[in-house]
Amino acid sequence: MTDRVVPDAPLDQARGLHVVTLGTAAGPAIRSECPGIATAVVVDGQFYLVDFGLGVTRAAHAAGLRGENLKACFVTHLHSDHVAEIPAYFLWNWGKPVEGFTRPVRILGPGSADPAAGSVGIEGLVDHVLRAYSYDIDVRIVDEGRPPLFDLLQAKEIELPASAAGADGVRTPRMDPFPVYEDELVRVSAILVEHPPIFPAFAFRFDTAYGSVVISGDTTESLNTSRLADGADLLVHEAVNLDFYRARNFGPKFLNHQEIAHTTPAGVGRVATRAGVTRVVLSHLAGVATDEEWTAGVATEYVGPVTVAHPGDVYTVAPVDAPAATVSPA
Ligand SMILES: [Zn+2]
Known about the structure:
Layout: E1 17-23, E2 38-43, E3 46-50, H1 56-62, E4 70-74, H2 80-83, H3 86-91, E5 105-109, H4 122-132, H5 134-144, H6 149-152, E6 153-157, E7 178-182, E8 187-192, E9 202-208, E10 211-215, H7 223-228, E11 234-240, H8 242-246, H9 252-261, H10 265-275, E12 280-286, H11 291-299, E13 306-308, E14 313-316
Parallel strand pairs: 3-4, 4-5, 5-6, 10-11, 11-12, 12-13
Antiparallel strand pairs: 1-2, 1-14, 2-3, 7-8, 8-9, 9-10
Helix pairs in contact: 10-11
The structure holds zinc ion.
Zinc ion is lined by residues 77, 79, 195, 198, 218.
């Protein structure tokens, strides 16, 4: 496997399995020019989006990804920096005039953490977004002949398996991955990860005929992530530089959040080593460090190749001349 490769063909025509780190920044904060967290998994030119950080609409377009090739979407958790650009992405990638999708697209993500308190899950979030823009959507259906977005964008909340009901009130017990989506190109499975106080928070694994990719979402160092990533070809994992925050006056509560809800580079290394993954890419970088500082931390616990993702990087998991294939049945 090579990294940061520009495929011979445009991504929407490229055979094989590629991962594009569309946005790499963490948090609802502008600390760099990097777009917010968003990752595309591209299989034989069709693609899947994981999270919708600030800037994903332009970043996906710049990468050559068009809505007409979008197969499905996944949301790891409902922190705003992972969902903020859901409205713009779909309004800018819907219907023929913009090479957008004209067939149903599913967006899978968390259910409500606390329905009694009125908090919504991904179904409520998407429903509210569509209602908020209903005037524009209705006008474009009538005025431009666009397909009915209300029917095409299908939000679905991920049901937790019985194994997620931990003993002694543990919200995120050790568990096995469970399937959440399958089509002719991918099988996607999920597992709960630890990102307190957010619940639920998921990591996702894509298994394809060309190899496997795991995206950690936001999590502290988690045995569940290692379980999900067992033997994976590529692990895209978040990381936090705690020293960056300790050296600045962000306050004890903010520092505590970074400590208990995110993963140090050494922690990423331990997760990767336990899982036996082939390669690690760091994305969703909280705090500032040089690439060498990020990778050196991982290398204290992991001997494989580590790369710091930059916006628009393309990681080729399988050779671009790999034969076309469909994912084998579960
Ligand atoms: Zn988060």
